[in-house]
Amino acid sequence: MLSYPSSMQVSSRCLRMLAEALRGRRTTVRTRWRRLEPGRQALLVLAHLRKGETYRDLADGFGIATSTVYRYLREGLALLAAMAPALDEVIEVARRKAYVVLDGTLLRIDRVGMAGGQDRPFYSGKHKAHGVNEQVIADPAGRLIWVSPALPGARHDLGAAREHGIVDAITTAGITAWADSAYQGGGPAIRVPQRRRRLDPATGRYRPLSANQRAVNTAHARLRGPGERANAQLKAWKILRRIRSCPSRATELVNAIQTLILAG
């Protein structure tokens, strides 16, 4: 077996936070013996999330069995996911912002059953790929505030936002959210760009937007654009670029990474 030095861009604060959570769990369950100390187990979990390391590679790198890697990862992910904020906590944070940016993103997944059309709910016609739909809320600077639980990738963004209660929550709280045209019809709290005018019966073509409408869309894009940084933050964790676990575990993965991003 060959080995080589490697590094990853994760703050020491995240490592310490997870190590403390693992140490507390071991005290609670009174585990008698472990192959790795909490700090090493935390490093194993972060390597899996940040770099997408396989169970076999982690087992070789940390000198433990593949089955042990599986147990350690499940334990670490469950602890991190439990620390993710709920929507009502996020709304309190969003109240202190001038506005928020609401956007949907697709996390690709390759563990979807193809028999009997089981994959159809996860197939996104927009992205031409299977995945899960995530609703992302960011602040005006593009910093992540919240990521929703995962829904099948075929779900429309506005429908997903309604199902998670995002639309009702921001409307009730009086928060302004800037979003793309997929959220058209979401109510007065969600600002969307000007849409193309209806077909001109004389020419059969869409009537062009006026100069003022184009200027409004340009200003809208400038406000909404930084929200893409939050999506990029999520996908900087390699494990989310293509999820290789059951779709039912996607929410746990996303919540775990959300906790680490918010921890800084």
From TrEMBL:
Record carries keyword Metal-binding: yes
Record-annotated Transposase Helix-turn-helix domain positions: 35-84
Top-level lineage group: Bacteria
InterPro entries recorded: HARBI1_dom (IPR027806), Transposase_HTH_dom (IPR027805)
Gene3D superfamilies from the UniProt entry: Homeodomain-like (1.10.10.60)
Cofactor: a divalent metal cation
Designated name of the protein: Transposase
Species for this entry: Kutzneria viridogrisea
